Here is the input.
Amino acid sequence: MRAAARAGVTGLRFCCLRHDRATPAAVSHLQLANAQLTSELQVPLCELHSAPLLATQQTPSDYDHYITARTATWKAARARGNAPTG
Here is the structure.
């Protein structure tokens, strides 16, 4: 009976670990809001040719990359005088 109890607990732990690994991390509300605000930064269309699209982001790291890339594009355009200052 002890072996069965241990097997049940071990099976439960294994099940939970497998579930955690199978479920991707959720994108936080803060990341979603930050990405939405970042997407509203005015950048000339010609400077967005290789920029990631907000609609295609899925994971937290995707959103972090989008926010970083779009902000850098806006800052570069602003430095050249091609974008409003904010």
User: Anything to note?
Assistant: The CA atoms of residues 27 and 61 lie 9 Å apart. The helical segments are 2-22, 29-39, 60-79. The chain has three helices and no strands.
